[in-house]
Amino acid sequence: MIRHTARAPWRAATAAGIAAVALVALSACTSGMESSGSGSTPAAGGTNDGPLTIALLQKQGDQQYFIDEANGAKQAAEAAGDVTVNVVDLGTDSNKAISEVEAAIAQQVDGIIIVVPDQQIGPQVIQLANDAGIPIMAADDTIEDGAGNAAPFAGFDGTSMGEQVGAEAASLYQKAGWTAADTRILSAYKEDLSVCQQRVDGAASAFSKAVADGPEVIKVGTDNSATDAQDKAGAVITANSGVKHWIVWGCNDENETGVVTALQNSGVAPADIIGVGLGAYLTCKDWKAGQDTGNKAALFISGVEVGKSAVDSMVALLRDGTALPPQSIANTEIVDASNWESKGVVCT
Fold it and tell me: In this structure, which CATH number among 3.40.50.2300, 3.40.630.10, 1.10.3720.10, 3.90.180.10 belongs to the domain 158-300?
C-alpha cells in the first residue's frame, strides 16, 4: 500500500477532469485499444513500486462482457507484477455501489475503477474517492463530478458503435429486399443510460442515412438484460402481429438476443429477422452451434481490453505518476457467422 496523503496531485487531476482526449494503445489486436494523439503528460509526484491493490467495482458482473472485463483487469495486474485486483459485482444496485466504494476506501485500496449501475451516483462516488485521496476512474459508463467534470474513462465510443450497428443493419436490409411497409425496427435499451442512448441513436442515424424512408423504429425499454428484453419485446410483437420482417438492435448483446429470441418464440422465421448485436459474446452462441438464427451479425467489443486498459492506466498513475488519460477508447469490428472465430470472439 502507499500512503494516500501523497496523492494530492492525482486527486486534483481526477476531480478537475481534462478537456483534451488521449487514447491508450494496448495492442494490434482488432479488439484492442486504439491510440490517437500524444497522450497525457506524467503527473508530478513520487513513484511506488511496492504492492498495489485496485478495486474493480462492476454493475451486472454476471454478464459475460463484465466477466471478460474482470479477467482482462486481472491479466493486466499479473503482467504488471505485485498488483491485486479486487472484483466486486454491484448488480444493478446503486446503494451497493456507494457502500462498496466506502468499503474500498476503508480497506485503503490504492485505486478504484468503477462501472456504475446508475450514472447519477457519479458525483457521490467521485467525491468519496477524492476526499480519501484515492484516484478513481470510470469504465464503460461515463460519470461526472458535481461540477460536471468527467472522470477518466476506459470503454467505447457509444455513438460510433451504434453507427456501425446501424450501417450493418441497413446493408442487410437492402440485400434482403424488404420494404418499409411490412418491416419494423425494434430498438431495445435501458432508456436512462446515456451510453445506451448514444448507441441506439447512432444506429438509427446511420440506418436512416443509408436507407431513405426506412421502417418505423419501435423503442423497447429494458434493464439491459436478455430476460427483460425478451419479456418486454413480447407485448410489442403481439401488438404488431401484421409485421412480416423485423430488424433488431440494442444497447448490448443481451438486448438484441433477447428480442430475437422473443421473435423466434412467437413464430417469426429466422429468415425474417435481421438482428445485429452489440458485443458478439451472445450472438456467437447460435453461430457456434450452427443454428439457423435471426442473429445475423454483431459488433465485436472486447471487455478484456477495456479491463486491461483501465488497470494499466491506474498502475501507471500509481507507480510512475502518469496522469490518467481522459478517455481510453477500444476498437470495435462487425463480425458474423462466417468470421467470428477468426476475429477473436470467445464464445463461452
Answer: 3.40.50.2300
